[in-house]
Amino acid sequence: MTDTDFETTQIEAAAFRRLIQHLMHERPEVQNIDLMIHAGFCRNCLSDWYREAAEQRGITMTRDEAREAVYGLPFAQWKAQHQREATPEQLAAFEAAQRKHSG
């Protein structure tokens, strides 16, 4: 790995940590379904990507461990504290977004 590659990796890691910090502490009220509707990914996606990246490097990680790394606490605890039931409007918007981007 060159110095440039190392620096790029450090910058990417810092940006990822900032995104996680933002979602955990500054915007925990933003619902995963809203992220899926507007951005096409959510915290669960991030945790899946995190686990996949670990596994590509030979690090075994469970789904729960990856989710805790992204959510900042066990998923069930985060869900109990922050996740609300999706509204009919959110569900309709999610379905519309899925149709729009799967075609």
Automatic annotation (TrEMBL):
UniProt-listed Gene3D superfamilies: SMc04008-like
Segment forming the signal sequence: none
Protein name in UniProt: DUF1244 domain-containing protein
Source organism superkingdom: Bacteria
Domain SMc04008-like per the UniProt entry, residue ranges: 30-95
SUPFAM superfamilies with a match to the protein in the record: SMc04008-like
Pfam families linked to this entry: DUF1244
